Amino acid sequence: MSDDELAERVGGIGVFARVSPEHKVRVVTALQASGQIVAMTGDGVNDAAALRHADIGVAMGITGTEVTKEASDMVLADDNFATIVEAVKGGRAIYDNIIKFVRFQLSTNVSAITTILGASLLGWPVPFTPLQILWVNLIADGPPAITLGTDTPDDRVMERPPVAPGSAILTGGRILRIVFTGAVMAASLLLLFWGSLQHYDLSVGDFANEYESFSPQAKLVLTMMFMTFVFQQLFNVFNARTETESIFRRRTPNRSLGVVVGVLVVIQLCVVKVEPLREIFRTVDLSATQIGVCIGIALVIVVTEELRKAVDRSLLRRRKAVK
């Protein structure tokens, strides 16, 4: 049988008997030629060539030969095939966590850049100091992003189809979602600044001089902008855990993320409540009502993301129904 004939018929054959090492390689190659992702398991020297040619070669750790282990991509230390399922689950979890990390970090950067650029285009002052931006990138974003990288896999991770080979992490749809999230956070901050100018009867000229000469109201507005920006990141990290599923339906909790966010909330409150920190970060004391306003505006990103995910789920159901 020629290679072309084997590639056509291999999908309908369930058992190959009395095969030589060369035959195993041909079967693997034929399956790959038909567009399949091939996993090969083996323990003997005669399996080594096929293991090397397969997309994923799996060797037995206890009964397998050293040649087989060297030729494989994965070694089952317990010789239990069920371990392969757990390995696939772990691989999918790592892939998901990379996407979560990228989604969270990029949406933060988009919101910061858009806020600063938007304020400049409107003729407003830059609402954040360099130290505040550094604080957000290193402290408010860093630890939560790390916990996303170690997030526990969802218990339904094995129910979805595998990712196609060569798929990009940043697909067109994900880029649009990241831009949308960043734009919502930036728009919320800019509207907060505009509303604060109206509420406290301020003008752009009140921010023209050095910070030390600002009025108490002007310092208050900048502090609220900083607080809201930080709280947006702490809320958005929960949004980043899922792409289309509601954060309120996520079955597997991330306790380390909750602890990190709780600690950061306390630290951020100290930034506006402790005098030495206020001087360093150029903030002023905020009342409970003002902090509540900051939290309320920051929660807008949760509401909009929930609405966006609901729309995405509806469109996905419609596409499945059409198919």
UniProtKB/TrEMBL annotation:
This is Unannotated protein. Residues 125-310 form the Cation-transporting P-type ATPase C-terminal domain. PANTHER family: CATION TRANSPORTING ATPASE, CATION-TRANSPORTING ATPASE PMA1. InterPro entries: ATPase_P-typ_cation-transptr_C (IPR006068), ATPase_P-typ_TM_dom_sf (IPR023298), HAD-like_sf (IPR036412), HAD_sf (IPR023214), P_typ_ATPase (IPR001757). Keywords: Magnesium, Membrane, Metal-binding, Transmembrane, Transmembrane helix. It is found in: Membrane. Pfam families: Cation_ATPase_C, Hydrolase. Its main location: membrane. GO terms for molecular function: ATP binding; ATP hydrolysis activity; metal ion binding; P-type calcium transporter activity. GO terms for cellular component: plasma membrane. It comes from freshwater metagenome. The chain crosses the membrane at residues 175-197, 217-235, 256-274, 286-304.
